[in-house]
Amino acid sequence: MRKAFLATAMAAAVALPTAAMAQDDTIKLGVLVALEGAFAEGGKDSVRNVELALQQHDFMAGGKTIEYVVAPSDTTPDTAVRQARKLIEQDGVDIIIGPLSGSEGIAMRDYAKTIPDKTVINGISGALETTWVDPADNFFRFNLDGAQWGAGLGTYVVEEKGWDRVATVAADYSFGYTNFLGFAVDFCRAGGEIVERFWVPLGSSDFGGVIAAMPDDIDAIYLGVGGTDAINFLNQYRQAGADTNLIGGTIMADQTVLTSRGRAKQALIGTPTSGALAEDNPDPAWQDYVQAYQDAFPEDERFPTPSLFGVGYYIATLAAIEALNQVDGDLGNGQQAFQEALANLSLETPLGTVELNENRQASGTVYINEVQEGPDGNLVNVMVGKKEGVNQTLGMTPEEFRAMGLPSRDTPDCEALAASAG
Known about the structure:
Blueprint (H helix, E strand, L loop, with lengths): L1 H6 L18 E9 L5 H17 L3 E2 L2 E10 L3 H13 L5 E3 L4 H11 L6 E3 L7 H4 L6 E2 L5 H4 L3 H9 L3 E7 L2 H16 L3 E8 L7 H5 L7 E5 L2 H13 L5 E4 L6 H4 L13 E4 L8 H13 L11 H19 L5 H12 L3 E3 L2 E3 L9 E10 L5 E12 L7 H7 L9 H8 L1
Parallel strand pairs: 1-3, 1-4, 4-5, 5-6, 7-8, 7-9, 9-10
Antiparallel strand pairs: 2-3, 11-14, 12-13, 14-15
């Protein structure tokens, strides 16, 4: 039945036994999630994790029944906003959880300003600008942004791997720029040099030209792509006989890639990455969550452990439940009490305690992982380090961070960062 549900995610509200209760006793969530495009598999895991969080709370929060509606997107801003409007205007949702992809997040920040009496809790989108540039008062992000996810990786590859000359390949859109910026700031301040930068469209299928154009005098290639883009790159990289060391952006070696079919992913063995989670994190909160996820869904309908995308939507749903509990389900007065509760949450999650800054943006721990081959031959991420207390400005003052400029093809300036670090 879950397969059928995920395959027909355009369905309206999930019917619950208590759906006949009076409307005042029901709160409706809208789950805005990419189920088409490069991140479709991650989107399916996101829906699974919303369902898991709600199941764990008996589909209740603040003394009220919770229903949810899934609105499928395709990672594009226009589709995300169109589906969000449908959730609000046709489905009558009270709260939106989502979106998944970076540029969708920026679009949803702007749409949120048009619906101040509703609340948007980010799913897992990670573009910096979403909460950094003119943030919306009713948009909350309980995950780190893409720049934060890159923190610590550059220092690790310079100091532990000895790789200080790299070329970079990253997705040519907001999240690609943001995640690259986090890595590049850390890498350049640690003394690394970016020899050449390549940018590829989201949804790319042909990486042959980029692979052929790689400089010879580099220690590694940084790959800031994910989903089917990552799989396509690895297939063509392997076919070309390339064997340069790889450094992965946050979504390069996620479960959606490691569990894909084919052997091209073997090229990832030894690849360090950084991001929000470590699959082998010994923390009991993480271990309990993984066990609950595995118990909730048959093995052939889920990943071995929750994906980054799934974790983000799970935590966003937990935030909604906790804030609703704190205000006894009160969404009156333009949801003012609920939004104040969200802004001031100290939320216990599988990734530790999450709190938000004045932009309603999370700070927290970044994990450094390395892809290794497990005893059963499957690929796994092994934690090799972590960086705690990563804030939105990567440890700089807000003035220093703004002076770098917003994430783009040319930002940050590696030479300027190296000079400032020296």
